[in-house]
Design goal:
With about 140 residues, the chain is α/β, with parallel strands linked by helices. The protein has helices at about 10-20, 40-45, 45-65, 80-90, 110-120, and strands at about 25-35, 70-80, 95-100, 125-130, 140. α5 (about 110-120) links the parallel β3 and β4. It starts with 9 loop residues before the first helix and ends with a strand.
Length: about 140
């Protein structure tokens, strides 16, 4: 998941909440601070920027928890979004991934992070098309 503006995640969040509620599933919401654009060393020097991104993520996760009528697990990670999503999905044995899609590919197709998740993460994926946002959020749904 990439860092994102809170209002932009609504569609993916709604899908994940509906699915988790319908199937009585555990809901895991993951926020990844995307460090691939800058590299860990560049971001390490910009501790304030990293802290701001993590704070933004905490706010998004708090808002998601506040709008949900089900229990959920939240987590913040840093790194390459598709790698972190794949690792987390494997750790929690996720049955399904719901990911926001910026549609920034050529011609408005699936964006690069969503495409990498679909191609390389060994889990079913639902992409929720989200327009008009800065970055993206990923929601992982895991049934136990």
């Amino acid at each position: 998941m990439l860092v994102q503006h809170p209002a932009a995640a609504n569609r993916a969040i709604e899908h994940a909440l509906d699915l988790a509620s319908t199937f009585d599933a555990d809901l895991h919401v993951l926020y990844v601070v995307d460090t691939r654009r800058y590299g860990e060393s560049a971001l390490a020097e910009l501790e304030t920027a990293v802290a701001d991104l993590k704070e933004q993520g905490e706010g998004i996760l708090r808002n998601t928890e506040a709008q949900a009528d089900i229990d959920m697990t939240t987590e913040i990670r840093s790194g390459r979004p598709h790698d972190q999503i794949g690792e987390y999905a494997e750790e929690i044995h996720a049955d399904l991934l719901v990911i926001g899609n910026r549609c920034l590919g050529a011609g408005g197709e699936i964006g690069s992070t969503a495409e990498r998740v679909v191609r390389y993460v060994d889990r079913p994926v639902i992409t929720a098309r989200i327009s008009d946002y800065y970055e993206s959020i990923t929601i992982l749904d895991s049934r136990t």
